[in-house]
Amino acid sequence: MGPKLPQALAEARNGIRAMVPAGSRVLVACSGGADSLALAAAAAFLHRTGEISAGAIVIDHQMQPGSAEVAGRAAEQCRALGLDPVAVIEVSVDGSSEQAARTARYAAFAQGMDATGAARLLLGHTRDDQAEQVLLGLARGSGTLSLAGMPAARGPYLRPLLSLDRAATEAICRHEGLEYWEDPTNTSGAYLRNRVRHEVMPVLRAVLGDKVPEALARTAALARADAEYLEALASRTLEEVLCTAAAEQPATELRMDLTRLRALQKPVQSRVLRLAVVRLGAPAPDFERLAALTLLVQGSKSAGPVQLEGPVAATRLAGTRLPRGATAQLCLDAAALKAVES
Question: Where is the tRNA(Ile)-lysidine/2-thiocytidine synthase N-terminal domain (predicted)?
Answer without folding.
Answer: 26-199
